[in-house]
TrEMBL record:
Cleaved signal peptide residues: none
CDD domains in the record: HP_PGM_like (cd07067)
Record-annotated membrane-spanning stretches: none
Ranges of Basic and acidic residues composition bias in the record: 12-35
InterPro entries, A to Z: His_Pase_superF_clade-1, His_PPase_superfam
Pfam families from the UniProt entry: His_Phos_1
The species this protein was found in: Parahaliea mediterranea
Biased composition (Basic residues): 1-11
Protein name as catalogued: Histidine phosphatase family protein
Ranges where the record places region Disordered: 1-35
Amino acid sequence: MKTLHLLRHAKSSWDKPGQPDRERGLNKRGQRDAPRMGEALSHILPPMSVALSPARRAQLTLEGLCRGWPALADCRHYTEEDLYTFDGDDLLDWVRRQDDRHLALFIIGHNPALTDLVNTLVAGDGLANLPTAGYVRIECPGASWAHLGERPARLARRLFPKELPGD
C-alpha cells in the first residue's frame, strides 16, 4: 500500500495587485494556520520528507508547518517545479513517476489540482474542496505509484484549520 499526504498551501495574500502568482505570500490567516496545522499534524504523523511547489506561498506554508512541528524541520524537503500546477492530471502524472521505494509522499501544492486528485483517486464520497492549509491522507492500494488510480483509494484522514481548537 502507498500513502499520499496532501496539504494545500495556507491562505495566500492578494494585497499586491499585479504581483506574479508565484511570488504571493501568506496573509495573516495563512501565517496563523500553517503553524497550527504543523502542531496538529505532529500528533498524528511521524516527521517526513515534503515535496512542495516552488510558489512562495507553498514555501512559507512549509516554514510555518515546521514552526509548529519542529521535528519536521529536520527532514529533507525538496521543491519540485512540476508541483506548481493547478491541474489534477498533471499532479497524478507527477505522483506516478515517483520511486516505489517511497511508501508515502507528502505534497504541499495548489487547488484545484489537489481536490481533483483526491476525487480522481477516492471511491465514493469525494471532497468538495480542500481548503487552504487543509490536509488529507489517502491510502492507495498496490505497491507501485505507476499504477495509482487503477483501483479505488480510501480517504483515511482529513484535518482542516477550522476544526482545530481556538478557531
